[in-house]
Structure formats: structure tokens, C-alpha cells
Amino acid sequence: GAVVSQHPSWVICKSGTSVKIECRSLDFQATTMFWYRQFPKQSLMLMATSNEGSKATYEQGVEKDKFLINHASLTLSTLTVTSAHPEDSSFYICSASAIQETQYFGPGTRLLVL
Amino acid sequence: GENVEQHPSTLSVQEGDSAVIKCTYSDSASNYFPWYKQELGKRPQLIIDIRSNVGEKKDQRIAVTLNKTAKHFSLHITETQPEDSAVYFCAAPRTSGAGSYQLTFGKGTKLSVIP
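Output (C-alpha cells, whole complex):
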């Protein structure tokens, strides 16, 4: 149990375009989903926390107008990187949790902006 | 907010030996401590977790110990195997005003098991 999927697994796009990443909890209802960013050989950096049906809470320094998060249902959250630039290239990982604190991670999306 | 320190940053052990990774946290109210294993290019996978009402938890070759007084917890891997090679992250929770449980992660330990 506790399977989280993420799509796409990798994406290459041109600078200035927008990219949408989906995160789904496949076998449980996720009251909360989290979005992380991970640079090579570094730890997981929390970008935002989203609860179903409410606005996401962004970490300090994360631009909410650039990284749009929608959590429309208990099994789906989306992250849209708007007007992507090369510095946005990274590994984006979502996680989902139900009632308790345990977070289960998706497989990640590798974004390369040219 | 929670501050999590993890040591060492890299660890090499011979196959069959034990490996120990230590983390300290700052918030005495923290009550949940997970450990994640991340292989290169893959997702972090929960390998074991412990809650503050116990001092030790074991799952086959993996164990976690917790010292609430000293605010530190450790991951112990016995009889290491090459497939244990990965980056290990500890984490501790920080509760947000919305009641959701965010995690603060340590910087990770790259474990290499030498055959």
C-alpha cells in the first residue's frame, strides 16, 4: 500500500514555457501533499504544502506565482512551473500523507529547461 | 522551526560490518522520526520510523534508537550488503498552523558498502 505516482518522470522544455507535474496517491486518500525540490547531491528542500481544497502554503523564498499548486482532490495535486528558466532545472518530488505524519514519496520528475 | 543535523555525510564500510548514522534535532516537542533511503535517481523510501513513546525499534537488519533527553536518534544497519549502498536521510516533523506535518530533513549520509 501507500503508492504515490508522479507524471511525467522527465521533461525537457524551452525557456519561457510552462510545465505541469501531476502527483497522485493511488491507494489512499492524501489529506496533505508536499512538493520538494532536490539538487544533485543535496537534501530535499520543501517548496510547499498543500491540503485538499485549500490554498497551498509556500516556504520562504518560493515564488507562489511561479510555482502554482492545485490540490483539487484527495488523490491529486499538480505543480505548474510557469515561464520556466534554466535555473528551474531540478528534480521535483512530491509526497503524500494521510492522517498521520508518514510521508510517501512519488518517483520524482526531472525537469531540464533549455 | 526544527533544525536537524545529520552525521556523517559519507560512510564507507566493508560488507558484513555495521553502519551507524546519527541525527540530532532541536524541537523537544517532536515525536516522530522517520528514516528514508534514496538510491541514485530514485524516490526516497521509508525504511523505518520511530515515535517518541519508544526508545528502540527493529526491523530485521535495521534498527533505530531514540534518546529524547539528548534529542538525538540513530539508524543502525547490521550485516551490511552492497544493496544497502544509498543515501540515507533522517527527518523530524515541524507542525504548521494548518495542522499538517511537514518534515525537516537532514543533509543525508552517502553509505557505500564495499564488497
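The first strand of chain B starts at residue 4 and ends at 7.
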